[in-house]
Amino acid sequence: MDNDYFFIAFYLGFFESTSSADE
Q1: Which of 22, 3, 1, 21 is nearest to 11 (CA)?
Q2: Residue 1 CA to chain centroid, in angstroms?
Q3: C-alpha–C-alpha distance, residues 7 and 3, integer Å
């Protein structure tokens, strides 16, 4: 179930990257 954690981390990173780009 380690893949789930990786997916969350990747999603969070992508979301944060988009948020930063928006500003």
Answers
A1: 3
A2: 18
A3: 6
Q: What is the pLDDT of residue 18?
A: 73
- Report the predicted TM-score, pTM, of the whole model to 2 decimal places: 0.40
State the residue for tokens 């500003």.
23
Q: What radius of gyration do the chain's Cα atoms show?
A: 10
DSSP string, 1-23: -HHHHHHHHHHHHHHHHHHHHH-
Q: What is the pLDDT of residues 1-23, one digit of tens each?
A: 678 999 999 999 888 877 666 65
